[in-house]
Amino acid sequence: MASVKEMDTYAKLWMKEAGTRLRASFKTKLNIEMKTNPNDLVTNMDKGIEKFFCEKIGEAFPEHRIFGEEGMGNDIKDLKGTVWIIDPIDGTLNFIHQQRNFAISLGVYVDGIGKIGMVYDVFSDELYHAIKGQGAFLNDQRLPSLEEASVSKAIISINASWVTENRRIDPSLLAPLVRDARGTRSYGSAALELAFVAAGRIDAYITMRLMPWDFAGGVLLVEEVGGEVSNIKGDKLDILKGDSLFVSKPGLHKEVFDKYLLGNSSR
Ligand code: 2AM
Ligand code: CA
Question: Is the pLDDT of residue 80 over 60?
Fold first, then answer.
């Protein structure tokens, strides 16, 4: 069986090569297609980068399975064995509109347990990287453990959708949190927002709907620096189906559940 070290070494090389390809694509004309709606877009690069990972993983680890956003991997119905969960471009709208604020996200799960998490901020050339039990790193510099935080001193990443009429949460629940926090931000890439929480650049990230490849890599980064990770009800994440997500520095989780999400929590 492949060792975590071996998978990690390959994964890092592939992330860097994929990033170089994405940066090179800034000079070319993108081929953009609509997926489910006019704001849900996919480019030739999303597909090309997923194909690149599928080929590399298939050559190095033919017995492993791949769960990718663009569907070029396997039809995944369980997390048995080793599964590589990949988003070739997380934040495709940013990639198209801004050529920044997007990331490649990768998580390696063995029998449902996250072993390797990587998020590559391609524009900034910052590779966030975690191995379960061994800590999290930014460009090979170890990230320190997160310190306790409180809402009044926190910068919270949240999309404005969740405090306006929407189908997933009563906007009056999160509006007071937005009011009480020191500040809010929205970067438009869940993987990057997870990496920013792990690096202490923001204090929390809350969102109502993510797919497995949006968070499979990033949640490991946050866990490895002692951050708190759950869905919006306070339950363990559903890695296979996707979930809502609430990650934060220690202490913030409890404060947010106690003061703002009471009634929405299953605890
Ligand atoms: P994507 O660009 O890979 O689709 C934007 O707030 C974040 O949510 C991005 O990480 C984006 O990833 C993801 N996202 C966008 N639309 C989504 C949807 N309908 N369901 C789940 N995740 C989504
Ligand atoms: Ca994507």
Answer: yes
Residues of the chain with CATH 3.30.540.10: 4-142
> How far, in Å, is the centroid of ligand 2 from the Cα of 149?
31
Q: Which atom of ligand 1 is nearest to the CA of 211?
A: 21
- pLDDT surpasses 80 at 266: no
Name, in order, each residue with C-beta under 8 angstroms of 10's C-beta and a sequence gap of 6 or more: 56, 60
Q: What is the pLDDT of residue 220?
A: 98
Number of Cβ within 10 Å of residue 157's Cβ equals: 24
Q: Do 202 and 244 contact (CB within 8 A), yes or no?
A: no
Q: Above pLDDT 70, what percent of the chain? A: 98
Would you say domain 151-261 falls under CATH 3.40.190.80? yes
Residue to mutate, 46, 186, 211, 215, ligand 1, most ligand atoms under 8 Å from C-beta: 211
State the pTM of this model.
Answer: 0.97
The CATH 3.40.190.80 domain(s) of the chain lie at: 151-261
Q: Whose CA is nearest to atom 23 of ligand 1?
A: 210
Q: Which of 116, 138, 54, 62 is nearest to 88 (CA)?
A: 54
Q: What does the DSSP 8-state code read for residue 148?
A: P
Q: Atom 14 (ligand 1): residue with closest C-alpha?
A: 210
Fold of 4-142: Fructose-1,6-Bisphosphatase; Chain A, domain 1 (3.30.540)
Q: Place 135 in a pLDDT band, splitting at 50, 70 and 90.
A: very high
Name which of 241, 233, 198 is nearest 219 in CA terms: 198
The overall longest dimension of the chain from CA atoms, in Å, is 51
Pocket test for ligand 1, best of 105, 210, 241 (most atoms within 8 A of CB): 210
